[in-house]
Amino acid sequence: MSHGGFTPIARRSVSDEVFAELRDAILTGRFAPGDALPPERDLAMSFAVNRHAVREALKSLQAGGFVRVVHGGGTRVLDVRSTAGLDLLAHLARSSVKPDPGIVRDGLEMRRCIGIEAARLAALRADAAAHARIEASCAAYGDPTHPDADRAFWLEVVVASGNVAFRLALNSLVQAIDAWPDDMDPVLAGDRADLVPHAPLAAAIIAGDAARAGALADEILTQAIDVWAALTAPGGRNKEA
Hints:
Layout: H1 14-27, H2 40-47, H3 51-63, E1 67-70, E2 74-77, H4 80-83, H5 87-94, H6 101-125, H7 128-139, H8 149-161, H9 164-179, H10 181-192, H11 199-207, H12 210-232
Antiparallel strand pairs: 1-2
Helix pairs in contact: 1-3, 2-3, 5-9, 6-8, 6-9, 6-11, 6-12, 7-8, 7-11, 8-9, 10-12, 11-12
Protein name: Transcriptional regulator
GO molecular function, one term: DNA-binding transcription factor activity
Pfam families: FCD, GntR
């Protein structure tokens, strides 16, 4: 049955399934950088799919920086840390791979860097409408009817910074956070509970005080890094995360 001129399609295609399997095999180290993936024909037989599905999956892997497809020369696995973009975080979140403690730490450090600069730029660029949104989102901390107050606040700050790259990076971080709730909920509990108050940060942004906004964002966002360090230290609850 057609809806609005479009025909419903399967939620996940065969090539998507093949892509996910191969992606996870690369992320878990089953195929290391420099390794050659099996030929298309062998992969098609292993997955019991046609070669077109395999070819489409390989194209997606190449677009994501996982492999390099050489016409007539096979497919080589790349070092994703050198070739992938920020969307690698989203791929890690969608995969069956448990988060590596170092990757989580790196993501939290990137979150802090983006937050500091976004707060500073918001103080310089935000208009009155953005000020109102930031102030309103800040007031939602502690309100049980707004469980996502922390996310909403930082979204407004990033939007007010006027930096699209920061917004895209935030998207990747949010996907990773949502995919690993058991690991991330304890780490972000202080942020969500307004343990280090966000109200002074909102006030600094509204006042146009970029230096103070950056310093306050640093203080707020460092607490999650400190919690993760404690959890992954010898004897910490998540040391085998």
